[in-house]
Design goal:
Keywords: Transferase. The chain has 280 residues and is α/β, with parallel strands linked by helices. It folds into two domains: 94 residues, 3-Layer(aba) Sandwich (Oxidized Rhodanese, domain 1); 165 residues, Up-down Bundle (Ferritin). It has eleven helices and five strands, in the order βαβαβαβαβααααααα. It has a five-stranded parallel sheet. Helix 10 packs antiparallel against helix 11.
Length: 280
């Protein structure tokens, strides 16, 4: 097979995804359903390679498209197909999912969608997002209280602090949104409504606390704590992106994309935190 498209190494793909805003590029997973469910890049559109030729109209031909599969073979074929069909800038991830070193999400394409199924307004979206952040903060504080080792307890408290800061950002986003509409912007009332949606079982990304905890072999291990935190942020990014793809209302879709950008930023903060410590 002769490559007629650009092939990106994992670090190049990561830089591309970081530099392009979420609505200005397409990330395409062409693996089979079971492969996608086992793990995928957050926010990836999923069209198995055997179905791609019949589903091209689901993709925006004017946007750069980064395609990936398990090892880079199917994605190269898919990218060449897209190039032949007039897509502006198809690219393939060299080494595929096996070579990817960034955050990943898990589960089928409808995972967590129920948590945002009733959202039809920006107000409701931000309230539910705030509530999910609160639930995650509560989980981290619970784990901090359980931790026997002071360092592990400190890691969980710092993770809880990240969620507290993110809730403040969401409150600010809501206030700015309401002010821009010339409407009441009582943040205290907003947070009270959001708190009513909070549940100890549904966290960021719409996944239950038990499901997240099942990813951890040892809740008292600091490395496990950071892996959990990154998994949560990747799931949240994935959920907001998938929900935005399904949203017809332009204003709500824009806010979902903004929340996804916030989660992507949060994932980077966690990555920097790990790098600064020099270890998980």
């Amino acid at each position: 097979m002769t490559a007629t498209v650009r092939q990106l190494a994992p670090h190049e793909a990561g830089s591309f995804l970081d530099s392009a805003r979420l609505g200005e590029r397409t990330l395409l997973d062409v693996r089979q359903d079971f492969e996608y469910a086992e793990g995928h890049l957050p926010g990836a559109r999923h069209i198995p390679l055997p179905e791609l030729s019949e589903r091209l109209d689901e993709l925006d031909r004017s946007l750069p498209v980064l395609v990936y599969c398990r090892s880079g073979v199917r994605s190269l074929a898919a990218a060449n197909l897209l190039a032949g069909q007039g897509f502006a800038e198809p690219m393939s991830l060299t080494g595929g999912f096996l070579a990817w070193e960034g955050g990943v999400a898990r589960g089928p394409a409808d995972l967590g969608m129920q948590s945002l199924a009733a959202v039809r307004t920006v107000d409701a979206l931000l309230e539910r997002a705030w509530a999910m952040e609160l639930a995650l903060e509560a989980l981290y504080l619970e784990l901090a209280g359980r931790a026997a080792d002071p360092e592990r307890a400190d890691v969980f408290r710092r993770l809880a602090g990240f969620e507290d800061k993110h809730r403040r950002v969401l409150s600010l986003l809501w206030s700015h949104y309401r002010t821009s509409k010339g409407e009441d912007a009582d943040v205290t009332a907003f947070e009270a409504r959001a708190r009513a949606f909070a549940s100890s079982t549904v966290l960021e990304g719409g996944v239950s606390a038990n499901d997240y905890m099942s990813l951890m072999r040892d809740p008292d291990d600091s490395a496990e704590a950071m892996e959990l935190a990154m998994a949560v942020e990747a799931q949240a990014l994935d959920l907001y992106m998938r929900r935005s793809m399904a949203e017809a209302d332009a204003e709500l879709r824009a806010r979902l994309t903004l929340l996804a950008e916030e989660e992507r930023s949060h994932l980077k903060v966690l990555g920097n935190f790990v790098s600064d410590r020099g270890r998980l």
